[in-house]
Each structure stands twice: as structure tokens, then as C-alpha cells.
Amino acid sequence: MKMTNHQLINEEKVETKVGPNGEIGNSKLIDQSKVFEKRLIKITDGVYQFIGVGLANSTMIESENGIIIVDTGDAIEEAQEHLEAFRKITNKPIKAIIYTHWHYTMGTRAYVEKGQEDLIEIWGHELVDHNQSTSEQVELWPTTTKRGYIQFGLFLPPEGPDASTNMGIGAYLLDRKKGRTQEYIKPNHTVSQASRIVIDGINIELIPSISDTNDGLIVSLPDKGIVINNNMMGIFPNIGAMRGDYYRDPKAWLDGIKKIRDLQPTYLLGVHGNPIIGQKEALKVIEDYHDGIQFVYDQTVRGINLGLSQDELVEFVKLPDHLKSSPVLQDYYGEVTIAVRGIYSGLVGWYGNDTATIHPVTKKEEAEKIIALSGGVARVLESVQMELAQHNYKWAAQLSTYVLKVNPDDQEARQLKALALRKLSLKTTSAITRNFYLVQALELEGKLNTNKNLVSSPKLVKCAPEYMLQFFRVKVDPSKSHNINQLLGIAVTETNESFGLQVRHGVAEVFKYNPGSNSPELSIQTTGKALAEFITGELTFTAAVESGSINIISGKFEDIDHFFHMFDR
Fold first, then answer.
1. In the predicted model, what is the mean pLDDT of residues 176-187?
2. pLDDT tens digit sequence for 58-108
3. Which residues contact 132 (CB under 8 A, 6 or more apart)?
4. Which stretches within 497-569 are classed as H helix?
């Protein structure tokens, strides 16, 4: 007799807790929220850190005639909360802002009035503006944005059992009640190497470092024994980002930690997590964090050299007890197993050590053969029920996946896999992993659809037109364009630039060009805003032409419309 979902989900007693918004998760993950209780902490005379708003801490340093702010959060609303707390200490004017890296620069407008940008020193690494403003991976935005939404729980309901927990490194990404507005202000002072500066009587050393970004600055106040950094986050770092990101090189990360160790701080302040007070305590945290990352990296490389595959390495690399128990190496955000996979992929790519994986059967064919060997779909689903009852949730999820590869609409398989993922979400201590489990469970249950356009025109319009047009490269449909060799000219009015979008037998190429006397047979003129709206699907070609947002310069409407039909919409 088959067990009901209700019986299964109550079969095993998982150590869980209920959070403030009704969310249910691993009790350790729920308890991590205590780290992010809103509070202003006095570090030492003239230095305060505010914790518990958004993902990141903000630090205030009193100078001779004003204050210096380190990091402005992810939104103006967050920065306003920080500033309100700081104003309970002093009403001195803001003299400077320092960015530790580009992630938490979007609340700056709360501190700087329009037109006053040049009156306040804004310091950052020379790459901050590049990382904040350019769009080198614009063609991946549909995927990286979606995965970012999943990672930070933005697809989950705001309340109830499936609501987000804390984010492991911070309280939340988005306060849904207040919403979020953002305005970054470009640094007017940048550094590319270790630099000693003086801001309103305060001696500061800015030291470039790499962690989860390549534009980090370690902020040292040598006269106070304070170091503010983004290299140590109070939890195991997210080295293998599931949402998709550049390879985060642990060796480069370790170099930054060594630079902090050389400073011998008495007060160790992170962009994430609680401040560490006392030199002995700070050096212990630095040692644990350094050794945890180095152990995982070195043992992964050791395993690679021993011939282990990525999957085998996950079982091979285990933190020793003294590091596994360290408070600053807990898997509340990144996980050791995911770091191992990220390191493996970053160093040696996808191939392991089994040539059968070079040209394997398709996943659907594999599923069909597994199901046949098992005695059919009904027998596989019976096995899934049994595995769930025995608390083998990983295998239950994998078994049900075989059925879904053959028939994605099999409702029993969908519900059983969703149940397995829900059980796994209760076991994990990682906020990221919990969010991924729950989002897919909700999709399988038919309660959520993440296949929506998350790349809006306001975001896209910030890109240069050349970057915007790269979307067409990855939208061209070869089945509709294999016999086509055609060029469309696109003139953008604001920048007075002309681009060619050429479709050539299944390939789309974007390039700048000077039309001169050799104008293409098909050409249009548009604005950056209209181009962004058209690319994101907010504006159809017909509506754009009718409204005058897109003007046809040469060629017929029908021919240009047919040209655009070669691309995914």
C-alpha cells in the first residue's frame, strides 16, 4: 500500500524550527538569524558598525570634522536605516564613503545629495565602476538573474513554511515591505595598489584584495587596530556559486586573508557577520578561515591528482574536526561540497576520469533504460515511496527524476520529487541550498513558474547599445535562419552610433559600422530605451513602429518583421 504524502513527511523527526515569518528550516539555520538582529555596535572610540539590515554591515568612522561611511548597502532604504542609527551618535557631516567592493554600493544616494557628488570623497578599487556599470555577460542575464532570485529566496512567499530564512551572510536581500530603490555613485578616488591616505585627520590604508569579487579593498585604520574586510564572512564562503559567476579562485582569496593577518588587527570587522574584538580572538578567526579555505582547495587538488572525479571528490574532501566545528566555517551560505565542485570545474573543466562520460547516452535514454531495468514506471515510483519512507531523500529525488525525464507531466513523480526536495530543504543548513530545493518543489507542485522575463528594460537600458544588442546573438533560431544571410542596420539616436546585426546561416553577429553610402537594404533607427523594451519583449516590433519608437529607414515593414522572427521572443 502506498504511503500518503502526509504520512511520509511526518515519518522522520527532523530537527527544525519556525522562524519569525513562519518559515520552517533546519534549527541551526533558523538560529543563525540571531547574528543579524538589528543593532548598532560600538567597536571602539569613534567607530561603530550597524548589523541586521539587508545582507551587509555598514561602518561609521568619526573623523575630526565629520564621518566616514564604509559600504552603503544594497538599497537607499537600507542606507537610510544605517544613517538614522549613526545620527544617534553624531550629526557631523559626511566627509567620505569607502566601498569595500561593488556589491554594496547601491545606497549611496542616501548619503550624498544630488549635485554634491564632488564635495564628498568616494573611494573604491579602480574596478568598482567597471563591475557596476559594464555588461560583459549581458547575454546570460536571463539565467543569472533567475538564479539570483532563487538563491536569495525572491521567488518564495514572504510568509509561511516556505518563506525565506535569513540568507546565511545577512538578514535578507530585499525588505518586501519597504521595497528597494538603488542609486550607486561612481568613486571619485580610486586605487589599484596598497595606498595610505588621510581623510579628515584619519589615517587609512586601502589594500586591494580578491574574494567573491575582483575589486575588493581591505580598509585598515592602523591607529585604531581596526581592519574592515570582505574576505572573511563569518560563515563558509560561497566559492562555487550555483547562480553562476566567474570562478572564485581560493588562492587569490587566501592572499587577501594573509594580508589581513599581516596587519595583526585588534578589531576585525567584516562586511558580513559579527565583529571580532581582541587581537587573540581576531587572529584565531583569521587562522581558521585561512586554513578552512586552504584545506578545501589543497585537498581538492590532491584528489584531482589522485585521479578522482568531481563526484568522488565530494566524498573525499571533508574538513577535519577542529575546522568543521569552527563557528566561522559553518555551511550557512556556501557549502564545502559545492566549493569542491566549483574548484574542480574552475581548474580542470567538466571531464572526470571515465571515458564513458565523453559521449554518453542522452539523459532521457538513460532514464528509459533505468526504468526498464526496474520493471517499469510503476515499480520505480513504488521504489521512490520506499526510499522516502527510509529517509533516503537524495535517491528518492534522483529516482523520480528518471520518470520525469521520460514524462515531465507525470503527476505522481512530480509530487514525490517535490516531497523529497522539501525533506532535503529541512535538513540543509545552507540558506542558498534550501531556497533552490523549495523553488523547484513549488514548481513541481504547480504553485510557481520561474520562466518569466526578469530582465527589465530599465536594467537593460543602463547598458551601452552594443552590449544590449548581444542578446540577439543568443536568441537566433538556427532552424529559421540556416538559409539566411541578411544584414539589418540599427542606428541609436542618443549615442549617434550605428550597428550591424547580421544573420548568417544560423549565426548572428553584432558589430559597429559606418553605413556611409553602403546602407543595408534593411535598417531602422531607435532610442536606447525603445531598443531595451523591444529586446525584453515589453514592446513588440509592430507597436514600436506604430508609436514611432522605431523608425524604418530602409526596407519594408514585413521584411524587417520577418527578420526579427528568426529570434526567440
1. 91
2. 999 999 999 999 999 999 999 999 999 999 999 999 999 999 999 999 999
3. 102, 105, 184, 186
4. 528-536, 541-547, 557-564
CATH of the domain at 522: 3.30.1050.10
Looking at 325, 346, 367, which one is the last position of a domain? 346
| Three-state secondary structure readout of 162-223 | CCCCCCCCCCCCCCCCCCCCCCCCCCCEEECCCEEEEECCEEEEEEEECCCCCCEEEEEECC
Say whether both 337 and 480 belong to one domain: no
Residue 74 is part of which domain span? 37-346
Domain boundary among 346, 364, 385: 346
Verify that 242 and 108 share a domain, yes or no: yes
98 in a structural domain: yes
Do 339 and 475 have their domain in common? no
Q: Residue type at 110?
A: A
Question: Are both 321 and 463 inside the same structural domain?
Answer: no
Beta bridge partners of 227: 220, 268
What is residue 239's three-state secondary structure? coil
65 and 198 part of one domain: yes
Rg (CA), the chain: 27
Identify whether the C-beta of residue 376 lies closer than 8 Å to the C-beta of residue 407.
Answer: no
Closest CA to 357 of 316, 309, 403: 309
Q: Where are the alpha helices (DSSP H) in 272-410?
A: 279-305, 310-316, 321-324, 336-348, 363-374, 377-389, 393-406
pLDDT in tens, 290-326: 999 999 999 999 999 999 999 999 999 999 999 999 9
Residues 6 or more apart from 286 whose CB is under 8 A from it? 232, 257, 260, 261, 268
CATH code, domain carrying 139 = 3.60.15.30
In a domain, 404, yes or no: no
- Alpha-helical (H) ranges within 46-169 are 76-86, 128-133, 141-151
Q: Does any domain span residue 484?
A: yes
Contacts of 190-194 with CB under 8 Å at 24 or more apart are: 190/123, 190/124, 190/125, 190/126, 190/128, 190/129, 191/123, 191/124, 191/125, 191/126, 191/217, 192/125, 192/126
Q: Which of 264, 247, 212, 267 is nearest to 100 (CA)?
A: 212
Verify that 43 and 184 share a domain, yes or no.
Answer: yes
Q: pTM value?
A: 0.94
pLDDT, position 135:
67
pLDDT at residue 400 is higher than 80:
yes
Please give the Cα distance from 47 to 197 (Å, whole number): 18
Q: Is 300 helix (H, G, I), strand (E, B) or coil?
A: helix
How many domains are contained in the chain?
A: 2
Asked whether residue 200 is assigned to any structural domain, the reply reads: yes
Question: Within this chain, do residues 156 and 300 fall inside the same structural domain, yes or no?
Answer: yes
Angle at which helices 377-389 and 393-406 cross, to 10°: 160
Place 9 in a pLDDT band, splitting at 50, 70 and 90: very low
Question: Which set of grid coordinates corresponds to residue 21?
Answer: 515569518
CA 56/CA 68 separation, integer angstroms: 17
Contact 514, 500 (CB under 8 A): no
Do 328 and 473 have their domain in common? no
Characterize 408-417 residue by residue with b for buried, 16 or more Cβ atoms within 10 angstroms of its Cβ, and e for exposed: eebeebbbbb
> Per this entry, what is the length of the chain?
569
